[in-house]
Amino acid sequence: MPAPLRGSETAFRLATQPTPGTLPAGNWNIGHFYSESFEPGQALEQDPELGGVRHNAVDPTDPVPGLDAPSGTLSVPLDLNQIGHYLKSLLGDPVTTGVGPDYTHTFTSGKDVLPALALEFANGADLFKEIEYAVITQASFDLATEGGYRKIDLSTLPRRVYEETATQAGVPVAAPSRAKVPGKIGLARFNGTLAANLLGGSVNIANGAEGERYADDSAFFGSIDPGDPSFTAQPEIRVKKTLWASLKTLFDGVTPFAFEVEYQLSATSTLILTAPRCFAGIVVPAMDGPGMTSVTPDIRAAQDATNPMLTVVLKNQVASY
Q: Alpha-carbon distance 268 to 270, whole Å?
């Protein structure tokens, strides 16, 4: 008798979608997810016209469908082979170097073009949930050291959410091997120095994308345009009080420092997030005895004249995204 299935992670299909309203004809990929919450977001609005016979404030008027305002979130495993699809939509096309089976994909913030994704989720034997032209607007990484595997929470701005009775994805390309990052793996560095005892917290990347509406739009907004990118982090750090003096000098609100997060499965399977110019406000640790102390600085990255605000380097076995 086979072992029962446990957990909620399952597979879905995704592809880059160059043109709104036209699903990709091929090159769909297999992804995995823990949960999704995509909704069409069409509200009902009251018609301000009262009609031939005026109604008073008590009498109802017939509602009309409002404009579509789709939205959705997606929770996925931190899989170093799959994450490139989401980073591409969040930060723009990467620069890829190397030869198989080792490739390096470098993503940088501030791109003017953000590729959109088409997503398809099976919802039973003959019902499929379609998400068209979705741009990843934010990614949140959990820094906690825990059991199981790490995940990423993604916020998206889709153009359309609907259902079909047959798959629109066709036959996806062969999926790369899984490269899920265990919860116990993850490092943070300040100016290249490893942070002692990183207990938790989060890292958040956003691109400020918004849907632009124009006077001639009918049902959907015209385009999705990037805004000002942002990188914030709130790492929970536990250090010996004898070491706190050397670390606290960075958290004064005016001293710039480099902050880096790394996830490594092997020498050829890594993910490194680097924000070269960060600032953090003053933090004062709680006095809880002679041993260790915990702080959670509020870190924010800033752009400078020569470096991107954020660089993400992904090494894996995938040739392109």
A: 6
* C-beta neighbour count of 308 within 10 angstroms: 21
Per DSSP, what are the bridge partners of residue 278? 257, 301
pLDDT digits (tens, 9 = 90+) for 75-94: 999 999 999 999 999 999 99
What is the full DSSP assignment across 3-60? PPP-SS-EEEEEEE--STT---SS--EEEEESEE--B--EEEEE-S---SS---SSS-
Q: d(Cα 61, Cα 36) in Å, to the nearest integer?
A: 35
Domain boundaries of the chain, sorted by first residue: 10-41+66-316
For residue 79, the 8-state DSSP code is B
Least Cα distance to 173 among 9, 21, 319 occurs for 319
Chain-centroid distance of CA 32 in Å reads 14
Q: Are 70 and 160 in contact (CB under 8 A)?
A: yes
**Better-scored residue on pLDDT, 4 or 302:** 302
Q: Give the model confidence (pLDDT) of 101-127 as tens digits.
A: 899 999 999 999 999 999 999 987 789
Q: In degrees rounded to 5, what are phi and psi of residue 284?
A: -120, 120
Neighbours of 209 (CB within 10 A): 22
Say which residue the tokens 């345009």 belong to: 225
Residues whose CB falls within 8 Å of the CB of residue 45, separated by 6 or more in sequence, listed in order: 63, 64, 65, 66
Residues 6 or more apart whose Cβ sits within 8 Å of residue 303: 110, 277, 309
CA 50 vs CA 43, 45, 150, 216: distances in Å: 20, 14, 55, 26
Which H helix or E strand runs over 179? none
The CB density around residue 229, as the number of other CB atoms within 10 Å, is 21
d(CA 306, CA 321): 27
